[in-house]
Amino acid sequence: MEPTPTNADLTQAAFSDYLKNKKLRNTAERSAICSTVCRINKPFTLDMIWQQLEDAKFHVSRASVYNTMELLLDANIVVRHKFTGAIVQYELKNFDDQSIYAVCTHCDTVRKVKNEKFNNLFTDCKIPKFTIEHHSLHFYGMCSKCKFRIMQKKINSKNQ
Ligand SMILES: [Zn+2]
Question: Residues with beta carbon < 5 A to ion ligand 1?
C-alpha cells in the first residue's frame, strides 16, 4: 500500500508545481524554506524561519527567505498577517479555512485558538452580494507571560 501523503508532502508538491509553471528552479534553499514553513505550524516571522534553518546548519540569507516567502505567497501556500503595527507574520494557509487568533498587543505573540463554539458562530453567516471563502477572527489583549511580567514589575516597584 502507498503511504498517505502528509500535508507537508502536498505543500511541497504544490510549491514545486508552482515553480515549474513559473519556470523557476526548485533549489535546495527554496525547498528547505518551504519544509520549515510546513513544520512550524503556527504564525511565524521571516526571522523565525531564518533562525530555524541556521540552527539546522543550513545557511541561507535573509533575502532568500524573504524572496521565497514572496513566492509562497504568490503560490497561495502562505498568507501574510499584520496582527499588530510592529511585525509582519506569515502562516501556512489554513486548509480547514477557519482561523481564530489571540494577539498579545504587548509582545506581538500570536496564538492560534481552537474553539468549536467560536467557529460555530459563523456557520450560518451570510453577507449580501458576497461569497465567503473563509474567515479569520482576531482577539487582541495580553498574554499570560506579559500579565505575569507586569504584575512582577508592580510588586518590585512597591518593594523599593
Ligand atoms: Zn505578551
Answer: 104, 106-107, 109, 143, 146
Distance (angstroms) between ligand 1 centre and the Cα of 109 equals 6
- Give per-residue pLDDT as tens, 107-156: 888 888 877 787 777 778 889 999 887 777 888 999 999 999 999 999 88
Predicted TM-score (pTM) of the model is 0.70
Q: Where in the chain does DSSP place strands (E)?
A: 78-81, 89-92, 98-104, 110-112, 135-141
Q: Are residues 44 and 58 in the same domain?
A: yes
Considering the domain architecture, whether residues 131 and 83 belong to the same structural domain is answered as no
Are 128 and 143 found together in one domain?
yes
Q: From the CA of 149, how far away is ligand 1's center (Å)?
A: 9
Q: Which domain holds residue 1?
A: 1-93
pLDDT band at 95 (very low <50, low <70, confident <90, very high): low
Final residue before a domain boundary, out of 93, 126, 147: 93
